[in-house]
Amino acid sequence: MLNEEPFKLHSIIRQKFVGYLEHLTPEQLADIPYGFNNNIWWNIVHVIATQQLLSYYLSDNEMLMDMAWIENYKKGTAPNGDFPLPEEIAEIKNLLMSTQQQLQIDYFDGKLNSFKTYSSSFGYTMNSIEDVILFNLTHENMHLGTVMAMKKLV
């Protein structure tokens, strides 16, 4: 059983992503900097989609994000070239924090205990929801680092 520390860290990571959504224009969010194959917007939505798939789908729970977002931003997808609309930015800002908070609630309520083992392309096998939560921190931090680098170029 995890303590609250991973969830505190997850909240901080998500708040950093919210900050980018609040301080960058839709054009900046959608710009694909030279040397990259995606953009800030894709990275931010992708971390929510991945967290939902790993935490909820693999534990046979209903995901907290519309399936259209997940289909368009899961692993193996790429930006579609559109600028995010203001209402989409608002929705993703809300989902960044609401999915983080609900994950913590659902974890401590034991709703995520039925779990299917999953091996990531990162080379890590997750055998429990605890493994997923810890791996997800690594995944989101990797994408946060990518966003930080991209911000300097947009």
From TrEMBL:
Domain DinB-like: 14-146
Record InterPro entries: DinB-like, DinB/YfiT-like
Protein name per UniProt: DinB family protein
